[in-house]
Each structure stands twice: as structure tokens, then as C-alpha cells.
Amino acid sequence: MMLNYVDLSESDLLVLLKKRDHRAFTELYERTWQSLFKIAYQRLKDKETCKDIVHDVFADLWNKSDVKEIGSLLPYLHTAVRYKIYSWLAKGNQSANFIEPFEHMAVSSVGADSWYELKELENLVSLWIKTLPKKRREIFYLKYMDNLSSKAISQKLNISQKTVQNQLLTAFNGLQLYVSHYLPLLLIAYGLL
Length: 193
Known about the structure:
This protein is mainly alpha-helical. The protein is built from 9 helices and no strands.
């Protein structure tokens, strides 16, 4: 008896996908691609770039289908699309139509897919750091990764301590703006709340 993939549940299709079943992959693609394209298009307003992003997400899904553990497909794919958008922007690509700021691109509630949200937050912060001007990024790393004081940073970079403090304040304010709605999730994840 031939399986009717249209009638299968998402979880059944995911099991088949882990076994590298092409028809399960096609069915999952048919069920979700429009939603993913819509998310990308809302942010970028460029059909070709959005098609490429969605294609890359599905290529990654297929290529890693036998090793990925996916609890709920749509939140996973939405996160993957947002990550691809961040990556695309972090590489210096710009879109005049990029109308939605980073902080509105992510899911804000704590739920079954919180792990994906935390990974998204980590990716968001990492990509945001890469968008900082070179000197500010260097100061940020020295302060928060190497734990240097502003005085030590100013001596190391041969700049005034006031410049270091201004750069750190600017960086911190920018980061706070981008992830402000994620702060409770981050605190919970690290056991601080």
C-alpha cells in the first residue's frame, strides 16, 4: 500500500525525513515554503533574495535531516529563515526595504521552542557584534570577552579612557535596544532569574 503523504502528520513526516525520504521532504516543503517566503519578504522586500534564503533553509534541512532533532518544524524553520536574514545582512548586504528592526524579527515568548529562541538570540548577538565598527567591536571584545578595564583598554589601544567609555556605552545601548525583549529569556537561560 502506497503512503499518502498529504494525510501524514508533521511528526510522521519528520520521522520519514530522518530516513532521507524525498517525498516526506517534498510534503514538508509544500506545507511550509509560503510561510517562510512571507517572513523573508516582510523583512527584505526582494523576491529573488527571499527565494534564495528559503531555498538555503530547505537545503540545510535536507542535508542535515538525518542528524537534526526537530521538535516542532515551523518554529525551527522560522528561526532558520531569520538566521539566514541576519547572516545575509551581516555580510554587508543591504536592502532599502529592510523595514523591520532585528528586535521584532524574533519570537518573544518562552515556550516549547525556547532552545531555538536562545540559539537565535546568541546568533543575533554574534551577528550584531560583527556589524559594529571595527574599533568599537575591538573595544567591546576587550571589555566583555577579555575582561579588561576601560583604563587597560585605553592603554592597549593608545586611545583616551573617555573614548573607550563612550564606545562601550554606545555599543551597550545598541545591544540593549536590539535584544531588550529577550533579556528575561536570557536571564532564565543562564539561571539568573
